[in-house]
Amino acid sequence: MSLVIHTARRAGSHDVIIDAWVRFDGDLVTHAGRGDSWRELADDATETTDAAGRWLVPGFVDLHCHGAGGASFDEGPDAIATALDVHRRHGATRSLLSLVSAPVDALVERLAVIRDAARADPRVLGSHLEGPFLQPEFRGAHDPAALAVPDAASVDRLLEAADGTLRMITIAPELPGALDAVRRLVASGVTVAVGHTAATFDEALAAFDAGASVLTHAFNAMPGIHHRAPGPIAAAMRESHVTLEIIHDGVHVHPEVARLAFQGAPGRVALVTDAMSATGMGDGDAVLGGLEVVVADGVARLRSNGAIAGSTLTLDEAVRRTVLDCRIDPVQAIDAATVAPAAAIGRSVDLGRLEPGCAADAVLLDDALRVERVFSRGHPLD
């Protein structure tokens, strides 16, 4: 299938092109330009979409998501498809499937399911293990009984089960054996994130020096910035290879704090959802990693202690909030949902941009940055 989207305000890669167009052939962008030059490539078999000056942006990339539509990614293939369908309608055309902490035996089984899903469905970028190698003091909504220290045997089992599809893992670097695990995982091509951690500034720097390159949901489940103890957030801002995840749902991080992240790490903030199964389902009861959750006014919290339990956020809302609440330029906000997350997992060559050779994933947004249409692998979604 060939498709041209024209007369667009194309955003991405730190720039805006007015009166822009892109051509999709199959699942790739093959041409891009501006003005009426697209007509030279169009024939009777080419479908066209007039963007009428609306925003045309790359498909959103979500690095950290647990589910939606009443389904969690740890529940099997049907649940994975259900949750991805919800997020794709909100512009997230590619996603890492995040798993909460569980015994290694259970994670091995779940990684194998995601391995198969990644090979069958291009929307699945692979798996993200948010645990079990987390600091109990900063466990958030993770089951304390499932937490463990990162011994070599467990790391090897997880890598073997994923068979090349484990793309990211969150680790508390102060745990015994953590730095060895970071080096082993990075050498295996896995992006290592620091998170759910009590790490000091120096401990976080040691992890980043060992190859860790993401800070999981910055400001949440970690020490804050203190003027004599700057902690992992300041360490991540200092290191130019580190991407900071931000859950910008109006609950996890105050807008002015999120704005500080954009200012302190320009081009290195990745908006993520950390969405759980209740996303798109309204208020009520839910489950996250076997723990009971109550969603009220769109905020998910553990029934047992009131701790925030992921979110009900979608990436389009995160982009809008970043622009409206944080007063961040729209292109920066869009880049934080496209360019930055793609780069964080080594996919900047083919994802997060609307340039020849990249994936034919795109989103049309109105002036209020609300999704009007989604294109996935070169096809418009109804």
UniProtKB/TrEMBL annotation:
It comes from the Bacteria. It holds the Pfam family Amidohydro_1. The active site is at D274 (proton donor/acceptor). Binds 1 divalent metal cation per subunit. Keywords: Carbohydrate metabolism, Hydrolase, Metal-binding. CDD domains: NagA. Substrate binds at A141, N220, A221, R228, H252, I308, A309, G310. GO terms for molecular function: metal ion binding; N-acetylglucosamine-6-phosphate deacetylase activity. Zn(2+) binds at E130, H196, H217. The keyword Cell inner membrane does not apply. Residues 56-378 form the Amidohydrolase-related domain. Its cofactor is a divalent metal cation. Belongs to the metallo-dependent hydrolases superfamily. NagA family. This is N-acetylglucosamine-6-phosphate deacetylase. It comes from Agromyces rhizosphaerae.
